[in-house]
Specification:
Layout (H helix, E strand, L loop, with lengths): L15 E3 L8 H5 L4 E3 L4 E3 L6 H13 L5 E3 L6 H4 L4 E4 L2 E3 L13 E3 L9 E3 L6 H9 L5 E3 L9 H8 L2 E5 L11 E3 L5 E4 L2 E5 L8 E5 L3 E5 L3 E3 L4 E3 L9 H10 L7 E4 L5 E2 L2 H18 L1
Parallel strand pairs: 8-9, 9-10, 10-11, 15-18
Antiparallel strand pairs: 1-4, 2-3, 5-6, 6-7, 7-8, 12-13, 13-14, 14-15, 16-17, 18-19
């Protein structure tokens, strides 16, 4: 739980606050930008919520925070935040919330679909939180867990044991070592089922992959996200653990696919037409090449 004694000085006075345990994952500033902001190396409250909608988003941020760094001085019904997850994004795709410190607050997603369409899919792993597990169980459990890369696997073993789901991960990120059931090799796309494709995209890590659902939703792990500052798609050279040059090459592969949503593990979500997304992707590639 957040400690009022450790409240960051950057917080504005009032009810909600962030304490010094914040790891700057930006979950709160993405969920509730009207309340939280990234002030540099950490996040803080820049405006206290003054509507029910903003209070709800602030409570969702409190619940989703991987380090429990958000607190309040007043009593709130925390179930307002808890019951909001999994949070609908579009169609049958949801944000799980309950991010994990072990994946530095990486976002995970749930695709809800009937068994005759392949069953539910979890992309990367959230915290194994009781409420979230119950909600997933009520929606039909998990048939597959798609792991983009080694950094965002969090509580994958607990979800695997609970739901008996098949985990999918690339060999070059240590899939065999952690007991993954379906191991992807090489750099060619792999059809997982009629709606899902795995696309190896080495760069951030050697075995990084992205997953494309229905030629509409691109789950990008730490490969690709939206930049609010530059107003286009972007990558993160400071965390290209394997190779920035290889990540630039991998980005070119994505020009062969249509998608309307970018859903990253870290960074901002974005939605646009497939045409505009291709334009922004090319812009990102040109920027990446210039940085080489």
């Amino acid at each position: 739980m957040a400690s009022i004694e450790r409240r960051l000085p950057e917080n504005v006075p009032g009810d909600f606050f962030v304490d010094e345990t914040c790891i700057d994952c930006d979950t709160c500033s993405q969920l509730a930008p009207a309340v939280f902001r990234d002030h540099g190396d950490q996040c803080s409250v820049h405006h206290q919520p003054d509507t029910d909608a903003d209070t709800r988003l602030a409570l969702m941020s409190l619940v989703a925070c991987p380090t429990g760094s958000i607190g309040t001085t007043k009593k709130h019904d925390v179930h307002i935040g808890i019951d909001a997850f999994p949070m609908p994004i579009a169609d049958n795709v949801y944000f799980c919330g309950f991010t994990s410190e072990s994946s530095f607050g990486g976002w995970s997603y749930l695709i809800v679909r009937p068994d005759n369409e392949g069953g539910n899919v979890l992309i990367d792993s959230p915290r194994f939180a009781t409420h979230l597990v119950k909600r997933i169980e009520q929606s039909g459990g998990i048939k597959q867990m798609l792991l983009t890369h080694r950094d965002d696997i969090a509580d994958h073993e607990k979800f695997s044991r609970k739901f008996g789901c098949e985990r999918v991960m690339h060999a070059d990120d240590g899939a065999k070592r952690i007991g993954v059931e379906r191991i992807i090799e090489g750099e060619e796309e792999v059809v997982i089922d009629s709606d899902l494709i795995a696309i190896p995209t080495p760069g951030h890590t050697r075995g990084h992959m992205v997953f494309l659902y229905r030629n509409k939703f691109l789950f990008t792990g730490d490969h690709l996200a939206w930049s609010p500052a530059r107003k286009t798609l972007t990558a993160f050279p400071s965390v290209a653990w394997y190779s920035w040059a290889r990540q630039t090459e991998s980005m070119n592969k994505l020009l062969n696919y249509d998608f309307e949503w970018v859903l990253p593990g870290h960074g901002d979500i974005h939605q646009d037409s497939a045409t505009n997304m291709r334009y922004h992707l090319q812009s990102c590639i040109d920027w990446m090449k210039a940085r080489r």
